[in-house]
Amino acid sequence: MPSVMLSAVLEEEPDLYEAFPPHVDPSGITILTDSPPGKKAPLKTFEELQPILQQGRKRELKLLIRENSWPINSPIRASLWPALCRQHQHGKSMLDGFYWDMVTQVFGTVELPDKPIMLPPFVEATHCLGYHLTRKGRAVADRVVSVLGYACPDITYSPSLYPITAALLHFMPEEECYHCMASLVASKEKMFITQTKLLNEVTWKTVMQIAKKHASAAQHLSRLSGAIGPERIYADWQWWILAALPFPHLVRVLDCFFHEGIKVFYRVALAILILFHKHSTNQNSEWYAEATKNGVDHAVDKFCRNMPASPTKLLRTAFSIRALSSQYISRVFIKTEMTLKSKQVITGSRLVRSRSSDNLPTSQSQVNIQMMSHTLTIRERMSEETCKQMGSHSPGPRALSMGVYPIQAIKSQILDQSELFTLWSWLPVRITMYQPVLLYTTEEHGCSLTTFYVRVEHHEPTLLMIKTCNNEVFGAYCSTRWFERNQKDERGNRQAYFGTGETFLFSLHPARAKYPWVGCAKNDSKEEGDTRTAHANSLFMAADNTMITIGGGEGQAIWMDENIRFGKTDRCSTFNNPPLCPSGDFEIRVLEVYGFSGA
């Protein structure tokens, strides 16, 4: 046992079992005090902090939270943590009962199930840390995370989400915990929880970069890492904090984290490295021997589990690191993210790997969309007249009209004039009268879904044209603006699919064909069938931060990843199209998106 724990004052609190919710087993929780009573000013109460929080005095609150070492059984966290999380919520606050409505919607009942709950794919089974939750508490944590996954389909990889949920549940009831996690996940001003594999990798590489500012600690770690290299060590950085630190240390770190964001974790990770360096520099030290015998990764983990510094000293070390401002961390983070994204584009191994079906449309967003395919409704339907106008799968060019004139100004890297004339003949007549405007092209604006949305999302309609590295040419006429991906239904849930029946697909090379909405081909008899089939036939457009999809039901007609680099095409019920390229998987050479000025 580390020296600080031997010298710490163990307080036999008679109300220990009353300090935590019933789903927590406090028998294994050690209550530490960092200094003898009377040495410091009395700890602040929530009533004293609340006005500071309400008045937005963030810096003052930050310093107070850092300085006040509340013991782990302090009642303040039941009020402080929810208040800290609420300040980060984006949009309107949730109505009372919203969480339980979601629970009923997902599980059919508010009763905890007897069988284990299947967790979302973004959770890492090896890091579902329950800390001191009881068996019932673990079931509650499972349910909160599952509902969060249902409500936030954009989350594709978030290993830290479960441990943070479990930690919150030590100090509040289930519904309050969900509201806290929803606020942290949706936060725009600060980052708390990474939600994709890319950003998860960016965080550990950011830690590795900023550690270089403290050369002695970073170089010491590199020397000790030997053949495995420092990357493997830094890849586990968040588990030094969430999995290895004693629970009282973790709770004090979370006090600051819920106010300041992920930069607290960065600082604490560096503090751990600094302390580990201090205790393992001497070749006769216990930790140097541990690192050389069992590897530095195991040594750092064991060092954290037996942390020789008190929670107060750990935080003091973290916050005394100089030249580590939020602005500096943000610059390193953004630069690292851009570097990784560019490597994804140019690295040969990445290209080969991404061509496999295992790595293309595997985002949780797609899974959720497919699950919802049979229950969605569409806001608008095409008029019967427009349906008749759109014709069959491969109509010939209609008679040239005055509307063809605007295409003379198009300088496409994908289509020649003959193909443009064919494509223009398939557009709704009224649209051909407008001047086409190039909104986005990968040749000029780079391969980024974020840039795509910035340049395209408010235009309606849009025309997407794709040329693959195998010279296949296809695309889609999208009737609705892409901003609709952010709209919510009457229950406050984001719409998975949107758009109207005027949307259609097309192929121009090697074959020329148009694939209109299957609803246009319905005859007047309108035979009644399975309602789910009707819904699957009306899934036009879908998008989130990780992908865009056109066409759904039994497959996606066009799917592209967040880097606008790789895609997949399948037959789909909405357009009854074949795959638009023979292999099904494709790599994008050029993507062009056109809007229509004045439309």
Automatic annotation (TrEMBL):
Subcellular location: Cytoplasmic vesicle membrane; Endomembrane system; Synapse
Keyword line: Cytoplasmic vesicle, Membrane, Synapse
Keyword Membrane: yes
Pfam families, per database record: RabGAP-TBC (PF00566), TLD (PF07534)
Residues annotated as domain TLDc: 413-597
Membrane topology listed for this record: Peripheral membrane protein
Name of this chain's protein: GTPase-activating protein skywalker isoform X3
Record organism: Vanessa tameamea
Higher taxonomy: Eukaryota, Metazoa, Ecdysozoa, Arthropoda, Hexapoda
